Amino acid sequence: MIKIYEDERSIEQFLDLMKKRSEDDSKEALEAVENIISLVRAEGDASVRDFTEKFDGISLGDMKVSEKEIEEAFENVSTDIKAALEKAIANIEYFHRKQIRQSWISTEENGVMMGQKIIPLEKVGVYVPGGSAAYPSSVLMNVIPAKLAGVKNIVMVTPPRKDGSIDVNILVAAKLAGVSEIYKVGGAQAIAALAYGTESIPKVDKIVGPGNIYVALAKRVCYGKVDIDMIAGPSEITIVCDDKANPRFLAADLMSQAEHDKLASSVLITTSKALAEQVNDEIIKQLQNLSRKDIIEASLKNYGGILIVNSLGEAIDLSNTIAPEHLELMIENPLSYLGKVKNAGSIFLGQYSPEPLGDYMAGPNHVLPTNGTARFFSPLSVDDFIKKSSYIYYTEDALKALSESIMVLAKAEGLDAHGNSIRVRVDNE
């Protein structure tokens, strides 16, 4: 079911295969996205409606979700879902509230003052996958840190279903989390509308949220005109385990990521060949009862792997090379290895901290760097929704004390006007 790799060369070949999963940024797709963005920028709402009809098969009237639709969603949502959303919101808020930064100021004896001002972004766009899928958890993870950062206007876009409606769970999650306005638009045309603004959809400062290849490419093309969170690739998990790990748990966790997408990657790194074979047996057994069996099989066959190594230290080093989106340390005393982890989006410690706990309920954000970008990217956080301005205040005496050094550097760089700006202030004449 899932291939086992035991030698260094085959492991390296597998890792190369993983990296190529996201090389579907075909020239054709990029050209299509650039054309969509160009037309939406030029024609506004009319172009957004045209593309929605073309790609989603829906002729839109008013693109904005009405208050009546949101009220009806609350009437039709199950009490269990609503209660689960409220519990998740409480946990996500608790975690992200600890990330809030404060402005600061420093005053020196010579009268100099300097500091940093924290300013929330004015308007943020949140893309939520929709249509046949419904991810209310994605709403919460993107909206809550923005609200805690102080963003006043949060504009959500999500593709409509075939009947022109939006899933009630998504609408309820959006209302509970604090979304300002919602539009029934998806794909590259939604990203273009948020980046440039149309008659109906407001222009935003930043766009966050996952989507398909067209959404990802549109965010990449629009970056610079608008800020973005990251370019998200297919989902992935790496599990490091010792020979005492439960094979039932390991198999279940590998499949929990594989069901996302045929391009998803599930990797187990272990010191035990016997355990690897037990995990394979468990996958076959558990797979029969799962609704997304075909997707899981394709994902595990093409991009899944069990890597056999000599020690847990070697396993951690290999994991750092992969820099996975999700990392589970399914080992005894996982906290003793936490300090050795250098590259991972989110880390799950021990056998009762599975990745789906983080997806829905624990509190840390599930918008994470993929495809090795955990080497330099971080999970979505409150920091993603603020900007910082530094400021200084100098007295005349304080400026004079530094004037000669400033003018020396200005002269060295050939910037006479810089030096003159200082000179006119300190020259007695």
Describe the structure.
One of its GO terms (cellular component) is cytosol. Keywords: Amino-acid biosynthesis, Histidine biosynthesis, Metal-binding, NAD, Oxidoreductase, Zinc. It comes from Clostridium manihotivorum. It contains 17 helices and 14 strands. It has 429 residues and is α/β, with parallel strands linked by helices. It has three domains: 4-22 and 233-375, Rossmann fold (3-Layer(aba) Sandwich); 44-228, Rossmann fold; 400-426, no CATH class. Strands 1-11-10-9-12-13 form a six-stranded parallel β-sheet, sandwiched between helices. Strands 6-5-4-7-8 form a five-stranded parallel β-sheet, sandwiched between helices. Helix 2 packs across helix 8, helix 5 (79-97) runs parallel beside helix 6 and helix 5 runs parallel beside helix 7 (168-177). It is globular, with a radius of gyration of 26 Å. The mean pLDDT is 95.
**Spatial strand sequence of the major β-sheet:** 1-11-10-9-12-13
Q: Identify the CATH class of the largest domain.
A: Alpha Beta
CATH superfamily membership of the largest domain: Nitrogenase molybdenum iron protein domain
User: Strand percentage, roughly?
Assistant: 15-25%
User: What's the rounded overall pLDDT mean?
Assistant: 95
CATH architecture of the largest domain: 3-Layer(aba) Sandwich
Radius of gyration, CA atoms, in whole angstroms: 26 Å
Low-confidence stretches: none
Biggest sheet, open or closed, and with what strands and sense?
6 strands, parallel
Report the end-to-end length measured between terminal Cα atoms.
85 Å
Task: Name the quaternary structure.
Answer: single chain
CATH topology heading of the largest domain: Rossmann fold
> Number of helix segments?
17
Count of distinct strands: 14
Q: Based on Cα principal axes, name the global outline.
A: globular
Structural class: alpha/beta
Q: How many domains? A: 3
Helix content: 40-55%
